[in-house]
Amino acid sequence: MTYKLLIGQRIYSSWSLRGWLPFVVHDIPVTVHDTLIYGDAFYDDVVSFGGHRTVPVVITPEGAILTDSLSIVWHLANAFPDRGMLPADKIANAKAINMMSEMHSGFTALRSACPMNLATAWNDFVPDEAVRGDLARIDELWTDVLAQSQGPFLFGEYGLADAYFAPVAIRIAGYDLPMSDTSRAYVTAQLAHPAIQQWREDGLSNDTELGQYEMPLTRKPFPKR
């Protein structure tokens, strides 16, 4: 039984990445369909797939439609409880759920100032106070759980919390944002994960760059890991 997943461009769509990673990392059969963010047919593609204005969208094998990344990952965690997507320990499980929920609703300053872009990295980005505040909170969350798990990922093995923070790790690398040594090691582990490498390679092969993501900064190569 195979899921269907609609995503936007891989080099830009952070929410698509969050929706895609659990399928690949946890070996869940899925057929991926693509649409173009900012393309003329984007909204028609989403609606015809069963969604409403945003990606990712998932159609379950039973025909249910999930229109938000959070509903997608909760569904998968419930449908495949043996895949280790969330920590088994009750305290760690609660922390993972809280971290994902905070990511879903928060860190808007970072997300706005530093769009995900896997095609390039940028020189000389200077984070403002709001972005620094987001980074401090992310650093606090990461270092707390990594001190317990000892890494390389937030709760040891790659799980849903890591999928949710993967685009944040990409932003930190791409804009060379200030973080602790512990968090930088976690960013390196994220970039080196085979699924992240595959996502980026597929994006560079299939996506064209969009002017909407251009920054008033000079470019440099995106760090592969």
Topology, element by element:
Blueprint: E1 3-7, H1 14-25, E2 30-34, H2 42-49, E3 57-59, E4 65-66, H3 69-79, H4 90-105, H5 108-113, E5 121-122, H6 129-149, H7 160-175, H8 181-192, H9 194-206, E6 219-220
Parallel strand pairs: 1-2
Antiparallel strand pairs: 1-3, 3-4, 5-6
The ordered H/E elements are EHEHEEHHHEHHHHE
The CATH class of the largest domain is identified as Mainly Alpha
**Any idea what the CATH architecture of the largest domain is?**
Up-down Bundle
Largest sheet: 4 strands, mixed
DSSP strand content: 5-15%
What is the mean predicted local confidence, pLDDT? 97
What is the count of distinct domains?
2
Q: Number of DSSP strands?
A: 6
User: Which residues sit in consecutive blocks of at least 5 with pLDDT less than 50?
Assistant: none
N- to C-terminal distance:
34 Å
Structural class call reads: alpha+beta
Q: Which word captures the global form?
A: globular
Major sheet: order of its strands? 2-1-3-4
CATH topology of the largest domain: Glutathione S-transferase Yfyf (Class Pi), Chain A, domain 2
Range of helix content: 40-55%
Q: Helix segment count?
A: 9
Q: Report the radius of gyration as a whole number of Å.
A: 17 Å
